[in-house]
Amino acid sequence: IRAAVLAREQLASQDGIDLRGRNPDPTNIAAGLSTIEEKAIGNVAKSGTQPIRSLLQYSEAPAGPGLHAMDAAAYAPESLTGFSAAGTQLILFTTGVGNSFVNSIAPTIKLSANPETCARLGTQLDFKCPDVFRGQESMEAAAMKLLSRVLGVANGALTYGEILGEGEEVISRYGPSL
After folding, report:
1. What total of structural domains would you count in the chain?
2. What is the predicted pLDDT for the residue at 178?
3. What pLDDT score does 82 carry?
4. Would you say 169 and 104 are in contact if contact means Cβ atoms under 8 Å apart?
5. Buried b (16+ CB within 10 A) or exposed e, 7-41
6. Long-range pairs for 78-86 at CB < 8 Å and ≥24 separation?
7. pLDDT (0 to 100) of residue 84
């Protein structure tokens, strides 16, 4: 994983791009993140407690069950395209400030715990858990509700994006994306 991160940083540096200087981006900063490390901690927390079994190349299907990481762009539309190309059947897409992207191949359950985002986006989010953010609901209780929503979508319930007919795929046209 470290080698993949360093390779992507080197690729960016060759093009005169400072990845660490671009992250977090202005929307992340407006939402309260101040460093890339804070952003990474959120990603680690969302991945659970299982060990990472493999680092997949972009659009590579995992060889077996478990938690896998994909060497993909930070840009959500492109990374979600890589997940669906790898065979993902359903996507859980967390958003702190309200990224509106949904995948056209795999149903995308958009979720947020940010109370402001939940209030602003309303029905555009498929799952909202602002009470976890506020400390008024346990993670376990919210996880059971989310599992119910996931099972519903897996059994044919439509996501907001599917109801509206939204969704797209984004594929890099020249070399790997940063």
Report:
1. 1
2. 64
3. 95
4. yes
5. ebeeebeeeeeebeeebbeeebeeeebeebeebee
6. 78/170, 78/171, 78/172, 78/177, 80/106, 80/108, 81/169, 81/170, 81/171, 82/58, 84/169, 85/58, 85/59, 86/56, 86/59, 86/60, 86/61, 86/62
7. 95
Q: What is the DSSP letter of 124?
A: G
Q: What is the pLDDT of residues 50-75, one digit of tens each?
A: 999 999 999 999 999 999 999 998 88
Q: What is the pLDDT of residue 45?
A: 82
Is residue 124 domain-resident?
yes
Task: Determine the average pLDDT of the residues in 114-136.
Answer: 95
Residue 98 lies in a domain: yes
- On whether residue 131 sits in a domain, the answer given is yes
User: How far is 146 from 27, CA to CA, in rounded Å?
Assistant: 26
173 inside domain: no
Averaged over 11-16, what is the pLDDT? Answer: 88
88-94: long-range contacts, CB 8 A cutoff, minimum separation 24: 89/154, 90/150, 90/153, 90/154, 92/146, 92/150, 94/46
Q: Is 168 helix (H, G, I), strand (E, B) or coil?
A: strand
pLDDT at 97 over 70: yes
pLDDT range class, residue 175, cuts 50, 70, 90: low
Domain that residue 100 falls in: 2-164
Among 77, 59, 96, which Cα is nearest to 166's?
77
